[in-house]
Amino acid sequence: MQEKMTQVKMEEIRCGETPITVLRFAGDITSASQAAVLGTYQGISNTTKRILLDFSDVDYLNSSGIALVIQMLIAASKTGQIIQTFGLKPHFQKVFTMVGITKYTTIYPDEKTACAAFSS
Amino acid sequence: MDEHRSSIELRLPSRLGFEKVAMDTAASVAHLMGFGADRIEDLKTAISEACINAMEHGNKLDETLCVSVILSMDANSLEVKVVDTGDGPKEHAVRPDIDKKMHEEETARGMGMFLIESLVDEVEWVSSPHRGSYARMIIRLHPANNNSKAQEK
After folding, report:
1. Strand positions, DSSP E, B2-142
2. I need a surface site. Which of A34, A49, B101, B103 has the fewest CB within 10 A?
3. Would you call A78 helix, strand, or coil by DSSP?
């Protein structure tokens, strides 16, 4: 059996005048996703200060996948980047809250709301 | 579903990814038993984490060793035992300290046991290297006082 591949698409958007980099995840996020998740994140310039994580198409996220999100948050905090999150299914919102990640990234219901929070 | 207890046993190779077979089977059983969607998601995550622990830490990802998943159900509850050939967990589940993780004073991983304990109504860790160490989880259709751990968190 093969795990469902992690796909990560990087996209530059603007919310009003504010440039934002969006990482759009799809598939599974597990220990096998390290290269896809952290590798893509490392491709973002340090000059980028606003990043959105889009989990709308993520089917399966386990504790090893959550650890990768934490590693992204650690790296972002070192370069002064702000990471916000949207598209998480309600169960994973609960899990993120349980482990405390929501202290370091806010979960928004959708892209529009997350963008608006960046530009406000 | 009948009043008597019936069971299903799966034997999974210790290869990451196969935990999803247990997740999907348990979700089907829980659906048949009448569990709601939220509780089924809790169960799926708990079983996934237990299977991953068994594969990684119990069986050291040796694909010749199986992880057994035994689902036993009666009218009110579903019990899941996840059995491996290891010595059982050496530590208790600890609530993750996100500040320590963010300051790299604690590994970013190591949240599986905490999630299991948070998401099911009852959990027991049994160390029995010769007979098979296991995690035993119970999720109830009607938790006492309608106050499950997952709802408390």
Report:
1. 6-13, 66-73, 77-84, 122-126, 133-140
2. B103
3. helix
* Model confidence at B17: pLDDT above 70: yes
Which residues in B have their CB inside 8 Å of a CB on A?
Answer: 15-21, 38, 41-42, 45, 48-49, 52, 96-99, 101-102, 104, 107-112, 114-115, 118, 150, 153
Phi-psi region of B134 (alpha: psi -120 to 50; beta: other; left: phi over 0): beta
- Per-domain boundaries in chain B: 6-152
ipTM for the whole predicted complex goes beyond 0.85: yes
Strands lying side by side in the sheet with B77-84: B6-13, B66-73, B77-84, B133-140, B122-126
- Map residue A45 onto helix, strand or coil: coil
Boundaries of every domain in chain A: 7-119
- Give domain B6-152's CATH number out of 3.40.640.10, 3.30.70.260, 3.30.70.100, 3.30.565.10: 3.30.565.10
The pLDDT assigned to B31 comes to 97
Helix H or strand E segment including A27: strand A18-29
Question: Would you state the pLDDT for residue B153?
Answer: 45
Pairwise CA distance, residues A60 & A29, whole Å:
6
DSSP state of A92: H
Taking domain A7-119, whether its CATH number is 2.10.109.10 is answered by no
**Closest chain B residue to the Cα of A90, Cα to Cα:** B38
Phi/psi at A90 (5° precision): -50, -40
Among candidate residues B31, B15, B13, B14, the one with its CA nearest the CA of residue B139: B31
CA-CA-CA-CA torsion for B109, B112, B114, B115, nearest 10 degrees?
120
Q: Report the 10 Å Cβ neighbour count for B131.
A: 9
Token code pair at residue B141: 């259709």
